[in-house]
Amino acid sequence: MTLRDFIAEAQKLGLLIDINKRVDPNLEMAPVIAALDGRPVMFNDVAGSEFRVLSGQCSDRRHFALALGCAIDDLVFRLADAYSSPQTPPLVSRSDAPCQQVVMSPPDLQRIPFLTHYPDDAGPYATAAIAIVNDPDSGPNVSFHRCLRLDATHLAARIVERRGTDSALKKTPGDLPVAICIGLPLHVLLAASMAPPPGVDELAIANALAPTSVVRCLTNDLHVPAEAEFVLEGRITHRTVAEGPFVDLTETWDIVRQQPVIEIDCITHRRDAIYHALLPGMLEHKLLMGMPREPSIYAAVNAVCTCRNVSITPGGASWLHAVVQIDKQHADDGRKAAEAAFRGHGSLKHVVVVDGDIDLYDPHDVEWAIATRFQADRDLMVWEDQPSSSLDPSATHVPGQKSRSAKMALDATIPWDRPDGCTRLHEFQRVPFPKADVSEYL
Questions:
Q1: Which of 53, 287, 313, 387 stands the most exposed, by the fewest C-beta atoms within 10 Å?
Q2: Is 248 labeled as catalytic in the residue annotation?
Q3: Is the pLDDT confidence value at 248 over 80?
Q4: How many angstroms separate the Cα of 119 from the Cα of each of 34, 45, 223, 284, 339?
Q5: Buried b / exposed e across 183-206, counting CB within 10 Å, b at 16+?
Q6: 19 with 42: CB under 8 angstroms?
Q7: Domain extents in the chain
Q8: CATH number for the domain running over 288-418
Q9: Residue 195: is its pLDDT beyond 90?
Q10: With 90 as the cut, is the pLDDT of residue 426 above it?
Q11: Is the pLDDT reported for residue 368 higher than 90?
Q12: Residue-wise pLDDT tens digits, 101-148
């Protein structure tokens, strides 16, 4: 499903909120998006820009299920299948690529409605920017990078150390060609959020999720999704500037760093292009960060016990907390599942393991399992001084070194007191209250 197909379907289902009042992307638009978090919102009259702005299309698992044509519970398996069986995307000509319908001449980033979210932001940011580069050794790499607009043709990008783009840049003596895509189908955004091994093209994962044609850029040899709304073609230089302040995933201020400058040589876009504004730290940001890590946790846990599903939770910034649902077949399966979850996603800080009768997407259900099935002196696991995430403000951060944190797991499965199960099983099972058909009483 293309982005425009999703918009049409969301409109038909009454999910899309249309805002026709003129809204300014400088400080005004972000609070409106925040107030409507969880719903797709289209801003049809954007102050200072001829382009519309869409936000929130990735702010609910139901939206991904709609775009991929599957049940919410099956999302992790769709992602896992695509991850393990990437399919090379077909290359189309420029005439068949909507992203190249219009060439902006001269290129002018100030025409594109980057948002300024907070008064203390470093400036206007593109937050749903997908950067495509080519690593000299391993080939294409596709990843998210927030981009600070410096002027009409320059950006500063936050490029995380020791990741794909950073590695490719360090291998390139001169400028590194880049294509930055904004306004993409939901399945492409999911694929770009994944972290496959070097040599696996994220766009091939996207094509395994749903048909994803690509087209060659006009000023370099990079391939970009043909359905993109905007493509910014340019070069990542080795010059740096201060990037930040910026509120990141954990809804806290990220530090200011010296980051690479990107020079933009060419901008192409669709006719009546739609700009995607992803609000940092809100549901859309969190789901795009967390959901693509669920298949790797699932695979790691399923290797040691029977895993039913995994949810990386928004309350844990969709990065630091996970709930793992298992079919318990041995007394120590909860502990094994927890240990495996940390191997599946190294940035995890806290994990809760639950049985199959617990709705892992419902925080009240998970808390009920902790309240009724967990004992701290028996079911709590703590590991000190572990490699962790740079996004956790409470972790220990030393420049140039991996962040460190303590990690914790809670085994909230029904405790077994014999090798084949629990002698007091009925005491741990929830008894649903019968609900009457109240229509005759109202």
A1: 387
A2: yes
A3: yes
A4: 15, 22, 36, 22, 42
A5: bbbbbbbbbbbbebeeebbbbbbb
A6: yes
A7: 288-418
A8: 3.40.1670.10
A9: no
A10: no
A11: yes
A12: 999 989 999 999 999 999 999 999 999 999 999 999 999 999 999 999
pLDDT in the model for residue 431: 87
Q: Residue 305 has what pLDDT? A: 97
For β-strands 52-55 and 41-43, DSSP reports them as: antiparallel
Q: Residues 278-298: what's their mean pLDDT? A: 92
Annotated catalytic residue, options 121, 248, 254, 333: 248
Residue-level pLDDT at 110: 97
Q: What is the pTM of this model?
A: 0.87
- CB of 403 closer than 8 Å to CB of 372: no
Contacts of 270 (CB under 8 A, 6+ apart): 98, 99, 101, 102, 183, 228, 229, 230
Element (H, E) at 233: strand 230-243
Distances (CA, A) of 122 to 8, 246, 251, 302, 362: 35, 7, 16, 44, 37
C-alpha dist (Å) from residue 189 to 12, 64, 288, 323, 422: 23, 10, 7, 23, 44
Q: Work out the number of other CB atoms within 10 angstroms of the CB of residue 19.
A: 18
2 by Cβ neighbours in 10 Å (0-12 / 13-18 / 19+) ranks as buried
